[in-house]
Structures are given as C-alpha cells and as structure tokens.
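Open question from group meeting: does this chain pack into something compact, or does most of it stay loose? Before anyone orders reagents, we agreed to write out a predicted structure and look at it together. Recording both the input and the output here so the notebook holds the full record.
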Amino acid sequence: MNSNMETHSNDNMKVFEKRLQSLERRVGEIESRLHPVVEDQIALYLTIPDSLRKSLFAVSELSKATADEVCIRTGRHRSIENKYLNELVRAGWLKRERVGKKVYYSSRKKKEEESPEVIRSIDELDKKLEEILG
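Structure tokens returned:
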C-alpha cells in the first residue's frame, strides 16, 4: 500500500513538473513577444517615438542643454519639450542635472550608471550624428 502511494505521488509530481515547464515556456514566449530583443543598436532608436527622438537628437547635438535651448532647436513649445525631456530621463536615455535655477539635460555616458546596451547605443548614435551633421 505504501509503494502504491509513493507511485501515485511520483506520478502527480511528474504531471505537475510537465505543467510547470509548459507554463514557463508559454510565459517566456509571451514575454519575448512583448519585449523583443533588438540586436541592431540603430534600430533601438527607432523604438523611441518620433517626438522623443527629435528631443534626444537635439540634446545630443548640443551635448548639454536646457529645455529652452532644446525647444529653440526643435521649434516646439518649452512646456512640451520639458515633458519630452523628462520622459527621456525616466527611460534612461538622458540624465538631468540642476545647476542653480537651471536644469541641464545631457546624454548618459557614465558607465557605472548605465547598462552596456545603453552605452553602446548612445555611442553609436553619437557616431551616426557626427557622420550626418559633420
């Protein structure tokens, strides 16, 4: 009787393990569809909405800028530009630094603050901008 219970218990464990593996596989498939891996670093920039990308490029061109300086570059209203710049900060593309009453935005370059993918992406973007803008 004891061996029957052990056999039944082992069978149940095998069923649970198969179900768990199936669920883990399905969750992995769903996660990969929600967050696709982007191998091409330039393609990574295409995942940024056009409105934010325009602000990101303006800051990259200026290297360090206030929202006023960026809005002159982009031709947008300061309040909209400030919103976009703060979104880029939250997403990790830019860093924000307050100096007195002014807030300056710049590309994130410090390796200890960023993941290697972000650093590579920013470096590649800087090179492409240099090629395009001269």
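Observations to bring back to the group:
The longest helix spans residues 2-34.
The mean pLDDT is 80.
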